[in-house]
Structures are given as structure tokens and as C-alpha cells.
Amino acid sequence: MAIPDLTAMLLKNITIDPTSDAVVIDGVSKIFKKSRPLWGRLRKKSQGKDQKNEIRAVDDITLTVKHREIVGILGANGSGKSTLIRILSTLLIPDEGTVSIFGYDVVKDESTVQRLINRVSVEASFFKKLSPMENLLYAARLYNMNGNEARKRIREILTRLGIKPDRIDAPLENMSRGMQQKVAIARAFLTSPILLLLDEPTTGLDPRSKIDVQNFVNELRDVHDATILITTHDMDEAEALCDRVAIIDKGRIVASGRTEELKRAVAALHGKAELVSMNEVFMHYTATHLITEEDVERYGSWEKAFEVYEAQREEEENN
Ligand SMILES: Nc1ncnc2c1ncn2[C@@H]1O[C@H](COP(=O)(O)OP(=O)(O)OP(=O)(O)O)[C@@H](O)[C@H]1O
């Protein structure tokens, strides 16, 4: 099927050197003010103490992503993944450091960068009364795509992502959250971006749909030369999809490399002959609490126990 060369269209007047790095993040930090309940603020005032009221959501991150690489940012809730993705997509300005996308600075060359990237996140905005087809045609029009070609391509992508034909023309508001997530993913694929930023794209999707999305991500890189940065909690996904991962904890990169390398390194640290799992690697670098077999039994699974301890940690940090 003839697909309009949208990438070429979008890149008119933008020079891209495919041999240069796709993303260069250099010493980037983002600091937020902690918002406190009124009672907490009054109490602090009365105590007259100068308490730390800042969160370094991203703390001195340096990372390079090569053209056509798929890189995973792995971190627990609140570790700074979305903040980093928002900086890359020009939605937030870094307080320290610089980021460039194919040589264009996210602050100084904001509008150029916006034409090179596409971000998918759970907060995707859609017209909920309209159907997936109508929403995606609207997006296609923004990118000057030919209507008939766009219609064909949209149907193809939505079908590939497992959306049933009768749902393609039905209102989005009647679809499950997972299905709406797939429409958000379809929108990013429709415009074949040079750099795709996927912020937890498969959270909430069933296993079959996860695989559909992962296959599509691979295809985008293999066929359309895209570079992909993906945040995820899902270690299997990271292993299946990413050439390289960076583990982030409290805004800092605590480990990075190929999954195989990290598994070998952690196994060696634990004195094990065979490779450990990616879950163990993740725990090794991020856990504040060692999860025991009793915890797994008590909470039903390793992931559930991890979530419970992370929630406790977050609560402690916010108090
Ligand atoms: N606009 C904001 N104002 C104040 N604090 C913020 C803001 N955005 C994020 N934070 C804080 O920054 C830290 C990092 O948040 P971020 O959303 O980047 O984490 P995350 O790793 O994406 O988490 P999750 O997996 O839950 O989406 C958290 O402590 C969060 O509460």
C-alpha cells in the first residue's frame, strides 16, 4: 500500500544528520516545589524551620540515544520517568542541563523539535464523542495527509492493534481505557515520527495487545528508521523490546546497559553462576526494601509486594 512519505513532508526545511545521535541529554535536572496541605504549611511556619520543600524529579541525568535505537527508561512510580519524557517533548523546561534532538535544542529550537517527535502517554487528549476514525482523521489533517490515504492507513493501523472493525466508527467514550490507549498509540504511528517517546504505552493493556504494540514499535524502527525512547514498569517488555535500558531511581540513573549485561553484572554481585532476571536487576538497583518469599506470599505476587513498599516509600517522602 502506498503510504505518503509524511516524514519527508514534516522534515521540509529541517536538516537531519542520520549519523548523529538522536537524543543527547546532558546533566539535566528538574526541580518541583513540594505542595503541602495547608495544615502542614502552618505547622512548618510555627516551627520556624527551614525544611526541604523541593523535589528533584530529574537529578543530573546524562544519556545518549543513537539513531534507530530502542532505549527503555525503567523506574518505579515517582522516579522521574514522565518528567524526563516531558522535558524531551518540550512540555517542561529543564532547570539545569541541556537536551538536543538530532542536534536541535529542546528549549531554543522548540518548534523544530516538536516536528521531530511524537509522544504517547495515558493522558492523550481526544474528542471523546467522536470515533477513533474521526479522531485520527483530525490528527491526519493537522499533518496535511491526504484524506483517502489517511483513512486507509488508519484502518490498517487500528486493525493491526486489534481494534474490531465495528469499534473504529463508534464513539471513543464507549471504549475501555486500554482500547483508548491503543488509539493514542495509533495516532503516534500514523505520523511516523523520527523520535517516538512512549510513556508507559502498554500499561493496562492485555498480553495480546502488548505484543501487538511491541511488534509495531519494532516495525517503526525497522521500516521507518524511527528512534524510540520508552518508559515502562514491565521488565519483560524492556527485555523483549529494548536494545538498552537505563534504570532510574529518585530522578537519577542508577544503572544502564544492555539487559543481558545488567543481568550478568547483578548475578556476579550476588555470587550467582546463572543470570538473574530483570526483576532482580531492577530490585537490586532500586529497592529500599528487600522483598522476601513471605512478602510474595502475603501480597500475591512479587510485583504487588513491590508496589506496596513503593507506595509506603512515596508516602513517607511526602510527609
Ligand atoms: N508538576 C509537578 N509538580 C510537583 N511535583 C511533581 C510534578 N510532576 C511530577 N512531580 C513529582 O516529581 C516526581 C517524579 O514524578 P514523575 O511523574 O516524573 O514520575 P514517574 O516515574 O513518571 O512516575 P509514574 O510511574 O507513577 O508515572 C514525583 O515525586 C512527583 O510527585
TrEMBL record:
PANTHER family: ABC TRANSPORTER ATP-BINDING PROTEIN, ABC TRANSPORTER, ATP-BINDING PROTEIN. It comes from Dictyobacter kobayashii. This is ABC transporter domain-containing protein. The keyword Chaperone does not apply. PROSITE patterns: ABC_TRANSPORTER_2 (PS50893). Residues 42-275 form the ABC transporter domain. Keywords: ATP-binding, Nucleotide-binding, Transport. It comes from the Bacteria. Pfam families: ABC_tran. The lineage of its organism: Bacteria, Bacillati, Chloroflexota, Ktedonobacteria, Ktedonobacterales. One of its GO terms (molecular function) is ATP binding.
